[in-house]
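Researcher: Re-running this chain for the archive, since the previous output was lost when a drive failed. Same request as before.
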Amino acid sequence: MTVADDGRLRLDDACGEILGDGVTVVVGPSGAGKSTVLRCCNRLEVPTGGRVLFHGADMAGLDPLRVRRRVGMVFQRPTPFPGTVRENLQVAQPTITDAESALMLERVGVDVEFLDREATALSGGEAQRVCLARTLVTEPEVVLMDEITSSVDPAQRHGLEQLARALSTAVSWWCG
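Model: Regenerated structure tokens:
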């Protein structure tokens, strides 16, 4: 897979395959294209060369909104929406109940009292965990996490790493 824009090559002939259960980690130096790979796997970007397959289907031909319901993405820089934490969860899952919201917040290490807090006023680590909860309420098949532990303390980092292991899902990816 190749990604280029504005005369700049951001990813050059990258190829990989992910099969089965588990956690897969993409590592490399800053600027190597790790985030670009993840964005292509969520259809936030489409490669300018090559393709990304998800369950055998070329991502470029799939509806981006449907893909993003199946392939959730949590970014390095949290992006809470204006409104309360409850409203942020409801954006992703309009029928979510307060009890379900509380369980999801607990799952990511956030106190239920946060439901009524303004999401954009949260600390970096709190916002990161709320954004993860917002992604998880859609029950995606795959969760892509782009350095989500960068703004949390060591105890929260350990909790998020344990959660990532628990979220391990059987899925097949191939890009080339």
